[in-house]
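WARN no homologs supplied; continuing
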Amino acid sequence: MGLSYLVYPGANHTRFHHAMGCMFLMQKAVQVLKFKGVLISEAEEEALFIAILLHDIGHGPFSHAMENSIVEGVSHEEISLHFMELLNKKFNGRLTLAIQIFKGESDKKFLCQLISGQLDMDRLDYLKRDSFYAGTPEGNINSERLITMLNVVDNELVVEEKGIYSIEKFIIARRFMYWQVYLHKTSIVAEQILVNVLKRAKELIESGMELPASEPLLYFLQNQIKNADFNQKTLLIFSELDDYDIIAALKQWKNADDFVLSNLSSRLLNRDLFKIKIKDKPFSQDVIENKRKKLIKKFGLTTQDVSYFCFTGEITNLAYSDLKEKIKLVTQKGKIIDITDVSEQINNKALTKLVTKYYLCYPKIKD
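OK structure emitted
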């Protein structure tokens, strides 16, 4: 949930909660499918449990904010895979099948779909969990009902036709949760300030300045870590990082001599966030430059440093995409049909079209 607790105070649950919840749902799903006659061996069952338990282990502090700051464009999925491969060596190849399923390389496609698909256990857990802790009941879904409707035909995951309304609710809830919670404007601006804080800290350290921070955090601030650099040493250091490393650093950096670092750190700690405007079209360069000129004059910033205080970006939301994989229903007669052929709700453009919005962030200043 990153910094969503700034908006929804109850949203303080952890990745560990989510991992355990996914494991529980996966056990339910395996139980349901085996009861319906789907062949899942003991080795495949164990592999599914391992893969879903470790699928998010590569997330760093404050979730997705870390994917573009302390590491150089390395996704959490890639780091999760590195961890799994390291564990596989430790356990003499016991995770080989789990890794194969995690990478989507199993001959049994439904095994991969349970880990990463339109109706995977990851989504079935986090939507319900995040909705509960954030206090947004509109995002609540009936995970167990959806699982009881699952089946397998021709090695692909399908849903019994009577589960169509539960799927519609799931997709609508997913759209709601992204706009209302994950992409809430306050969460966006707080996350971008955090990204800029870490970017500035790296920049200062590269220029020779010494900054106080925990040893694991300093390691990633002092080194350019890319995907190929994730050896055993780097992974173990990464595993020591958590939200407290970041918060502790912010508390020290707010007193730094550098204005950019101290100001941004103080803003995050004191909830003095930037103003954010969101619209359907990109902001004109004239609007951006006008804001930046005012900030340069007010704070005495350089043209380079002002980009830390006035910046743009974009957010996207796609509730249901059938480009890579479709949700398929199976009728009582065994016929397989695409859900978009029978659901008016899912054919709605609001659910199937990629929606892009643009934001502009800057401090609140009086003209």
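The two ends are 35 Å apart (CA to CA).
OK
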